[in-house]
Input
Amino acid sequence: MELPKKTFIEKTNKALGVNTEDAKLTLTYFSLAFIVLFIGGFLGFFQGLNRAGLMELPAWFNYYEVLTAHGFLLVVVFTALFLVGYLYSALSHTLGGLLPKVRRMGWIAFGLMVIGTVFVVTTVVLGDSTVLYTFYPPMQASPWFYIGLVILVLGIWTAAFGSFINVAHWRRKNPGKHIPLLAFFALGIFVLLFFGTIGVTAEVLMLIPWAFGWTETINVMLSRTLFWSFGHTLVNVWYLTAISAWYVSVPRIIGGRLFSDTLTRVVIILLVILNIPGGFHHQIVDPGMTEGLKLAHVFMSMTIAFPSFMTAFAMFAVFEQTGRKKGSKGLLGWVTKLPWKDVRFLAPMLAMIAFIPAGAGGIAQNANQLNQVVHNTLWVTGHFHLTVGTSVVLTFFGITYWLIPYLSKRVLTPFMNKLGIIQTIIWTVGMLFMAGGMHWVGLYGAPRRTSYTTYGDSTTALSWEPYMMLLAIGGTLLILGVVLMVYIIYHLMFLAPKGKTEFPIAEPEDNEAPTPKWTERWGLWIVLMLIVISIGYLIPLSDLIINAPPGSPPFKTW
Ligand code: HEM
Ligand SMILES: [Cu+2]
Output
C-alpha cells in the first residue's frame, strides 16, 4: 500500500507529540465517562444484591428507578461519551489535529450530551420516568425525559458532523489518498450512528406532544419499531468501535502487522451497509407484523455475522503470523508468544474470547423458537452483559491503558500494568459469574426487569435463588473492578510519571497489495445503505402508519 506522505501539520504534530487542545477534549469525555461508569456500576451492584434477596431498595429510589438509571447511564451515556472521546482522538492523531471548528463542535457536543443526560436522570430520580432505558410506550415518562433524549441525540449528531467535516477537509488536502484506517473506522461509526438515530428521534418527537398531553394516543407498534431501528444499530456502533482497536492497535501492541488494509475496510463498509435493517430480531414476539418481515430482518442480522467471522479469522491470523515470526513452532506454539502480561493486549484479547460465546448466544436468540424460550428472561440480560458489558467494555478499558497516558503525556508503569491485569481478571471472572448465572437462570424462566420476589413462595421461583447468588457474587467482583478501574484512570491522568506513550497503529505488511481505490466511495456506500434500509423498513413503517392500530392512551405503571 502506498503510505500517505506526511503533510506539514502531521510532521509538526509528530515533532510536538500530541495536540494539547485535542487531548483536553478527549480527556474531558473520558473523565465523565468513567464517573458515569462509577455511578452506573454501583446501581448495577445494588440490583444484583436485590435480586439475590440480600438488599432491599428504598421506596424513594426503588428497583425500577435504579434499573432505568443503570441501563440508561451505562448503555447509552457511558458508551457514547467513551466512543466520541476515543474517535476524536483517533481523528486528531491520524488526520494531523482537529480543525479548530471541529474541536469547538466536540465541546458543544459534550455540553449537549451532559445537558440531555441531566434532564433524563433528574426525571428518573424524581420518580416521573420509570420507563427503563427502552422507554416503550404506552408507559409514559415526563416530557422532560424525552426532551433530554433529543438534546443528547443532538450532541451525538454534532460530534458526527464534526467528524465528517474533518475528514472532508483532509480529503481535499490529500487528493487521491486513502483516508487513514482509523479515521475510516471513525467515519463508518459516525455514519452508522447518525443514520441509526434518525428513527428513534422521530419516535421521541412523537412522544413529546403525547407526554405534554397535546395528543391523546400513541402508535405503540410504530414506536417500538423505530426504537429498535436504533437499538440494534447502536450495538454495531459499539462493535465497530471495539474492532477498530482490535484491527489497528492490537497487532501493533503484539509487535505484528495489520492483517489486511483492504479486508479491514471491506468489513467496515459491509457493517455500515448491512446493519440497520436488523431491528425486528428484537421484536420477534411482537404482534402486528408478518413472519416474512421478521424473517427478512433475521436474515439481515445473520449477514452481520459474516463480517464478524472475517474479523475472527483476521485476528487469529495476525496472532499466528506474529507468533511464527517470533519463532514459534507447532500448531499452537504462537499462543505462548503473545504478550499475555501486557494489559493493553490482555484486556482486548479476553474481550475477543468473550465475543465467541456472546456471538453464539446472539445467533441462538435470533431463531424464532429459541427466542420464545429466552424472551424477557434474565438470559437476555446475561447476553448483553457478555456482549457490551464484557467484549465492548473490556476493549474500552484496554484502549484507556495506552490512550490516556498518550494524551496526558505520561506512562503506564509496570505496577499499574499489573493492577490493570488484576482489574481485567476481576472483571472477566465477575462477568463470568454474573452473566453466566443470568443465562442459566434465564433458561429456567427467571424474568428480567423484576425486583426480588418469590411469587408467594412458589417452588419454581424458589429454585432460582441459588443462581441469583451468582449475580450477587459476580456483581460484588464487578464493583471492585469498577473502583479499581476508576483509580487506574485517575492515576494515568494525574499521577503517573511523565513520559512518552505511543498511539499504537499497526503498519501493513511490506508486500501487501495496494488497497483498491473503490473502498473510498463513501457516497456509494451511503446510497447502498439507504437502499438496504428502505428494503427493510419502507413496507413495515408505511403499513404501521397507514393501517395504524388504535392508538394507546398513556399508562403509568408505577
Ligand atoms: C458493576 C457492573 C454491573 C453490574 C453489577 C450490573 C448488574 C445488572 C443487573 C443485576 C441487571 C438486571 C436487572 C434486571 O433485569 O432485573 C442489569 C441490567 C442492565 N445492565 Fe448491568 N451491570 C453492570 C454493568 C453493566 C454495563 C457495563 C453495562 C453496559 C455498558 C450494563 C448494561 C445494562 C443494561 C442495558 C441493563 C438492562 C436494563 C433494563 O432491562 O432495562 N450493565 N445490570
Ligand atoms: Cu440487534
User: Anything to note?
Assistant: Residues 233 and 275 are 6 Å apart (CA to CA). The chain has one domain: 19-329+339-502+524-546. The chain has a mean pLDDT of 94.
